[in-house]
Amino acid sequence: MSETVRKLIESYYAAFNNGDIAAMVALLTEDVRHDINQSGTETGKTAFTAFLHEMNRCYRERLTDIVIMTEPGGARAAAEYVVHGEYLQAGHGMPEAHGQAYVLPGGAFFTIRGGRIARVTNYYNLPDWLAQVAK
Known about the structure:
six-stranded mixed sheet; 4 helices; alpha+beta
């Protein structure tokens, strides 16, 4: 079971790194819960898709050094990684963007249901990111 979950999360991050929103969303449950880093929670594929489009508008990111951890029952997984990004356009309430590069560690927690991702909770150090893009 844990190998199936590992492959699911690997596919999710491969789609992310390829900029393939449709492939990412195909791996989610209809009622996916998305806990946004140091922010709110959204529910559903439509909200998740809109979030990804907004992210692609504002940032160009690639994840490296991805380590995936699963629990034996297959209901939960976690990942840690390094984000390599470029800040393209300011989002709501964010500082001015002018192509600043940033590198920071991040992580995510997942709940798996019916062979799909039912929850994504992302974490990274927002003050570290803000300091990097302030340059």
